[in-house]
Amino acid sequence: MPNTEHLRRSRFRASFADPDRLLFAVKHLRAAGHTVLDTYSPFPVHGMDEALGVRPSRLPRACLAFAALGLTLAFGFQIWSSAVDYPLRMGGKPLIALPAFIPVAFELTVLLAGLGVVASFFAVARMWPRLHVSDLHPGANDDRFILAAELAMDTQFSAVAADLDALGAVEMSLLVEDRLVKGASFWDRPAGAGALILACLPAFLLVASVPLFNRDFQKRNLAWDGGMGAPVSAQAFDASAVLRGGLVLQAPPPGTLSRSGAAPLAFAPGKTEAERAGRELINPYQPTQARFNRGKAMFERVCATCHGREGDNNGSVVVNRGAFAPTVLVSPLVRDMPDGRLFHIATYGGPMKMKGYGDLLSREDRWLVVLYIRELQKAAARPTSAPAVTPLPGGVQP
Amino acid sequence: MAHDADVLTGAALSGNPEQYGHNLPLIDGNKSYSQVTAEVFAPTERRPPALWWIAIAITFSMLSLGAWAVFQTLTRGIGTWGLNRTVGWAFDITNFVFWVGIGHAGTLISAILFLFRQRWRTSINRAAEAMTLFAVMCAGTFPIIHMGRPWLAFWATPYPNSRGPLWVNFKSPLLWDVMAISTYFIISLTFWYIGLIPDLATQRDRAKTKLKRTVLSIFSLGWNGSNRTWSRYETVYMLLAGLSTPLVVSVHTIVSMDFATSVIPGWHATIFPPYFVAGAVFSGFAMVLTLMIIARKVMNLEEYITTRHLEAMTKVVLATGMIVGLAYATEFFTAWYSGNPYERYVFLNRALGPFAWAYWMMVGCNVLSPQFFWFRKVRTTPWMIFILSIFVNIGMWFERFVIIVTSLHRDYLPSSWAMYRPTFIEVAIFIGSFGLFFTLFLIFTRVLPMIAASEVKGVLKNAEH
């Protein structure tokens, strides 16, 4: 690039205390053939653009361009990601649900337009962090209205000074004398740097998009595992530091009903309640062969471990382990207890040691067990005390 | 030059205009430009008074309490909150909507009033915009801590990942919300910063210490007040105002869609977007009033933030308050007119159910209390405005609580009905958000010029004429 040299004329500066005076002075100086380079003021002086002959800013076009870019990118990306790259139907909406894309598209349009126009503003107004500010007048950001101008050809500063004085200038000074300056080459100016960056942009985009076309979804994610990968799942019988009672397994809250639909019993545990049950409840089930079999099976599975298969206290727990001997079920004591009371004991347990089996046996099974105990008692009361392993049920309807 | 309004009312012709409303000067005290500079920057240049230290001690304690509660939430889990399976959103989302709404006034003042050429905005816009930023920060914390694992919050952004080609669901209002709030924050911050640059330059020129000068030089971007820059600056400012105006409307619209696009009776309503936007402006202006009445008093800025400013804002509060009241009535009408038993039940339950106290608190604060602003005496008496603005703040918090909790706690299945009651942790986080808000605001008043000096200087001259 050839370096050109040209003559730079003397420059001067004048400051005013009032925006209207500055405006008037600018108009006057321009009419007199001087070149007003710029004015400096603590707030924008309206009408100054016209007075200086500054053409309106073209930043709105930049804003529009960025907005269009944001809109295109937003719609393009949403369509690509939800219909092409990851087509997943959600909420019965079509893959390309344009109305649902509007909000994000709008936000991105505003975001890009806003940031873009600000960035363009900083670029064209050459605003970036600077420790030293050129052309700074101490009052420019406080209460002074300043103009900087180049003298017209063949004019002396003293003549202008008198003029400015008449226009109400508070202060004026000659900044530089005529001199020759070198024209900076294109590549020395920020525009040159910008052009370089722009030229590199396609190459950069190309490099950046390589991973996009070369994705390997078999590879494990490079993400810090914030705990999602290894959840702490509590086991039913573990101890727990946070749950009530120190156990993971929690008792159902009081009043919880069974999901099988049986209504709760109208009896509380305890002996008096057992006696009341004896008075108020009657066995709703008539003996049949099927019920006999079921009652026998349940009795032998649950009660016989203690009470013995014949109800004679010969259960394995009692015989082999020497546990507390239970009540003999075929004794007259139990024989005289009404059905309802036996049912209550089967549900809530005996008066001292025996636990209730309402949680193991369904309500029907408990009544069937009661039926079966009655059969055992009948068999035990028979004089020929030679009970078969399966005593014949009395009153069985074949 | 007379104000247009003076011409319209003929006040300018009568020769002796009544000293009220539009006829009052924007800035009192016949100030010169350098006086404005000196007074606006004074708080940033002298040591803070004792009152300021007391205030920040209180707000910082509140903030610490909130930080402790957030720590509890993150280490022990969301179980520390009073949420249950039925009421899955309560305090957190209420606070989120509350704070986002507060933010709206800042943008409204800085952008919409700018476009409408309401010059009284100049002395309050800086502080109102700062308030927006701080309120949006407070708002943002709530959904993030509600995630339970906030360190994974970035999952809400569409970033390239190797989990299969897995992208966020762009059809979900919750994602719209992420986009809207973050865009809103970024654009508000940019707008605020652009407005600050000329004042930062003034502050730089006045800086006494080297450090301050360096920092301010970096942020003022070499501003020298050149007319060419001013000309572009004004263009950019206007463009940003133009962009922020639809943006601010979109933000609360999208927030309301978090609710409206669901099928929960009480939420599923097309009235939500305008209703939420009006509510946001309403609550935001109330908060600006609360803050400004304190700030002008404490910082001796009564000549900048005059009763004329306060009065203009009370009128906005009155107008939006009535829009909100109309929305409440419309909701009831729609519920009845829909003929849908669930809708009808939800609204009866709101007004008469277990949370009726919250509902009537909301109606009392939001519909009745602004009615006092019909009286000029109330509109021009700062302490009365202050009290009413506090009522509106309370009412608008309850509005969000009522919408969220009463709609959730009894929906379709009576077997899943439940009650909600906040835990101490939740209340502490809420207090903490106020702590964060006021701490940031207090720091702001000492570090940056609370009033846009360059804009105020621009309206000084007009006030003289």
Automatic annotation (TrEMBL), chain A:
Enumerate the spans annotated as Cytochrome c domain.
290-377
Membrane listed as a keyword: yes
Top-level taxon of origin: Bacteria
Q: Which UniProt keywords apply?
A: Heme, Iron, Membrane, Metal-binding, Transmembrane, Transmembrane helix
Regions that span the bilayer: 62-80, 100-124, 191-213
Entry keyword annotation includes Nuclease: no
Q: Which PANTHER family match?
A: LIPOPROTEIN-RELATED, QUINOL:CYTOCHROME C OXIDOREDUCTASE MEMBRANE PROTEIN
What is the name listed in the Swiss-Prot or TrEMBL entry for this protein?
Answer: Cytochrome c domain-containing protein
From which organism does this entry originate?
Answer: Geothrix limicola
From TrEMBL, chain B:
Where does the UniProt annotation locate this protein? Cell membrane
- Is the Disulfide bond keyword given for this protein? no
Q: What is this protein called?
A: Molybdopterin oxidoreductase
What is the protein's membrane topology class? Multi-pass membrane protein
Q: Which regions form coiled coils?
A: none
Q: Which family does it belong to?
A: Belongs to the NrfD family.
Instruction: Give the originating organism.
Output: Geothrix limicola
Q: Could you list the residue ranges that cross the membrane?
A: 50-71, 96-116, 128-154, 174-196, 236-255, 275-295, 316-337, 357-375, 382-403, 423-444
A matching Pfam family: NrfD
Instruction: Look up the domain of life of the source.
Output: Bacteria
Q: Cite the entry's keywords alphabetically.
A: Cell membrane, Membrane, Transmembrane, Transmembrane helix
